[in-house]
Every structure is written in structure tokens, then in C-alpha cells.
Amino acid sequence: MLSRQFVRENPETVREALANKGVDADLDRILDVDEEWRALKSRGDDLRHERNEVSSRIGELKAAGEETEAQAAIERSQELKAELNEIESRAEELETELEAALLELPQIPHESVPVGADESENVERRREGFDDLRELPADVVPHYDLGEDLEILDFERGAKVAGGGFYVAKGDGARLEHALVQFMLDVHREQEYHDVFPPVPVNSASMRGTGQLPKFTEDAYRVEGTNQEAYDDDDLWLLPTAEVPVTNLHRDEILLGEDLPLKYQAYTPNFRQEAGEHGTETRGIVRVHQFNKVEMVNFVRPEESYDRFEGLVDEAEEVLRRLELPYRVLEMCTGDLGFTQAKKYDLEVWAPADDMEEGPAAGGRWLEVSSVSNFEDFQARRAGIRYREEHHESAEFLHTLNGSGLAVPRIVVAVLEYYQNDDGTVTVPEALRPYMGGTEVLEGHDAVGETKLGDG
User: CA-CA distance, 249 to 125, in Å (whole number)?
Assistant: First the structure.
């Protein structure tokens, strides 16, 4: 979150950020509340000072036998107490309102972020892997059809078990997901990441610390009850991304400079209710309610965060390079940047099956497989994560960054489509073969049961 002081001293910067990010917030009300709160705090300090002086005089007057003056001082002390109670009560109301309002203000974009209204104004920084594309079938079969033909993806049974937006990976499909997860974890271990395996449910305090609450309540899965406006810190949610529990590992803690940069990675399943609202992406496993992902989270000194940001982008790219999948790097404009982010790059892998205008000459479409973000001190301020170089020095807020390394289902899509062969089989990327027991080609499985679901 933004500090009160920053908002108070830089209202036009905040107003510009609201406009550029397309966020609707009543900044004028926030400034008015802050001004009244500060006036009340100042008045309260004056009243406490006067009351202390009056209280001191009461004893002196009584000792001197000046009972009338002492009684007048007692009455004045009571008046001051009553006024002070009233002021403190009003100041507490304003404090609550101000804290809630500040949680609704987005992060300020970094000065290098391109200004734009929406995703159409994102900037492509580079493409990789297109100089030597493998030879593809004349008609690449979409992953959702190929997965069913090979009996490695089952959408009907996924819907039967859990409802729309869920799928079952079977046989080599399941092996492929497991292999990708383990491969990604190994790559990031080489990059000196420490493994954590966090809880899947997270409490409201954790969701608020990383910025998922209160802004994105409707997108999250609440463990018990229905999504509603009010929630308690003890309420549990299924994590939308491992960024939430991993960042909150150090909530309300002070780290030492010698601990930084601190690099964590975590594999988790992730849960989001917003799936299935984007037309063609409702087919297959591009946009689903539950998906596997490896997440990288960094805690760094403020002066090092943008160098680390570029390093984090490269660490995520390394997975794509080793899988030899064509991809591109996009920089998000202000209108597509996100509530919590100061700067963000997306890595988008190329899936060649769908003929879409924005794809390369061979057709296809782009699938976001990683978002690499610098939050600066926005999350750290919300979650109370600070550091100091030495024990005797004052603590300050550090910077947090995160990046997916990578989203597994969309990599499965890219593998099934880009490594597809003319005979309907799929070549396993060389980097993954050790993780699949040396399997070089996915040839499919026989269906289970007398009839396939839906045929009888």
C-alpha cells in the first residue's frame, strides 16, 4: 500500500496513477479524512498537555488549602477528559476509514512503464526461438482435441468430478505435468532458489498482505461460506498463487541485510474463479479454475530491486530456453499493469494450433506463462516486512518481486502443439526426457471402459 505521507505529499502523482491504471478511488475523500484526522490528533495532543498541567495544579492547590481553585481545576480536568474522549473516538473512526481507503489505492507505476489504456498498448520487447522453428504438421491439431485423441486429457470426467473449468490429466498427460514441475524446480535450484512447500489455504491477512484482498474478493475461492463483502482475518481461502503464502512467510518480521536477496520457489496448485470468461480460452486447459504452477518470490534491498527484476525475468526465460519453445517478452503498459505492480513483464509462449491474427506467419496464438513483477515496497508495507543492515540500525521496508516459473498447463498446451508430429504423436522435449523415464514420444493410451463418456 501507499503510505499516508506519500499520498498526502504527492496527491497529483497518485491521481495520475489512478487515471493511468484505470482505478476508481475517491482520492479527495482520502485527503479530507487525513486532514481531519491530523487536526484531531493535534487537538488531542494539546488537550492531553493541558490536562497534565491541570492535574499537577490540583495537588498543589489542595496542599495550599485553596479548595475553591482546586475544585475549579478538577472540573476543568473532567471537561478536558470528556472532550478528549470524544476526539479520540472520532479519530479512531477516521483511522479505520483511512486505512480501508488506502488499501484501495494502487501501486504507482515506475517511470519507465509505457502509458497505455489496455493490453493492446503493451510493448513487445523481443522474440526468442523463431529463427529455427521445428517443422510442423500442415494442420496442427489443437491441444484439447489431441489430448483427448491420445487419452491424456479428459475434460468430461474433470467436469463430472468437479464441474466446468476443471480437467483430468491421465497417463502420459499426468506424467508430463509432473515432469514439468520437477524440471522447473531443478532449474530454479541451479539459480540458488530455496524450496518451500506452503499451505494451500491462506488466511485473509495473507491475502490482504499481497493485495488480493479487498480488491479481488470475487476471483478467489473461499474455503467456507460464500464470498461476501465482510471477512475476518481467520477466514481461509484457496491460494490463487503461491506468491500469497510465500510472501507472507515473513509478514510482520524484520530481516537482516545479510539475508538479502532472499529467493524462494514453491510449487502449488492454484485456484481462481475468473476462469472461463474469455471466449475461445474456455476450450481446453488454457484457462481453468485449478492449475499447477512454480512460483519464484524475491525479497531485496530497494536499491537492488530493478537489477533483480531483470535477473528474475531471465530466470523465468531459462525454462523456456531449455524446453526450446518459441516465446516473446511483453512489457505491460499502465492500463494492463495490475493493482499491486510498479513494473511487469509477461512471458508468452507460442502455441501454433489456433489461427489467430496476432500470431507469427505460421498462425497460432500467444499464451501467457509467466508474469514477472516488481512491487517495490507496496506489498512489504501492507504485510509489515522490513529489513535492517545491522541490529542497531532502524528498519525500513524492503522490496518484493515475484515471477511464475512457469504456469504448467499452458506449457503443456505449447508442448502438445509445437512438438506435435504428422502421425498425431508428440515428441518429448529433450530437457524433459530424464524426468519421464527416457520417454521420447507420447503415443497415447487406450480408452478405459466399454464406451467413452457421452456415447452411451
Answer: 33
Catalytic residues: 272, 287, 368, 371, 410
How many Å apart are CA 140 and CA 136, to the nearest integer?
A: 7
Q: Domain 4-102 belongs to what topology?
A: Helix Hairpins (1.10.287)
Q: What pLDDT score does 227 carry? A: 52
**Res. 426: pLDDT tops 60:** yes
Average pLDDT over residues 428-454: 87
pTM for the model stands at: 0.90
59: buried, middle or exposed (CB in 10 Å: 19+, 13-18, 0-12)?
exposed
Task: Give me the architecture of the 119-442 domain, per CATH.
Answer: 2-Layer Sandwich (3.30)
According to the model, what pLDDT value does residue 60 have?
83
The Cα 14–Cα 6 span in angstroms is 9
pLDDT above 90 coverage of the chain, percent? 81
Q: Is 18 in a helix, a strand, or coil?
A: helix
CA atoms of 214 and 95, how far apart (whole Å): 17
Lowest pLDDT segment from 250-264, 419-433, 439-453: 439-453
Of 107, 103, 108, 109, the C-alpha closest to 382 is 103
Residue 187 pLDDT > 80, yes or no? Answer: yes
Establish how many alpha carbons lie within 13 A of residue 407's alpha carbon, considering only the half-sphere containing its beta carbon: 26
Domain ranges for the chain, please list them: 4-102, 119-442
How many CB atoms are located within 10 Å of the residue 82 CB?
Answer: 10
Beta-ladder partners of 397 = 386
C-alpha span between 365 and 60 (Å, rounded): 85
> Residue 417 corresponds to which cell in the numbers above?
502443439
The one-letter amino acid code at 142 reads: P
Cis previous bond, 240, omega within 30: no
Per-residue pLDDT band at 58 (split at 50, 70, 90): confident
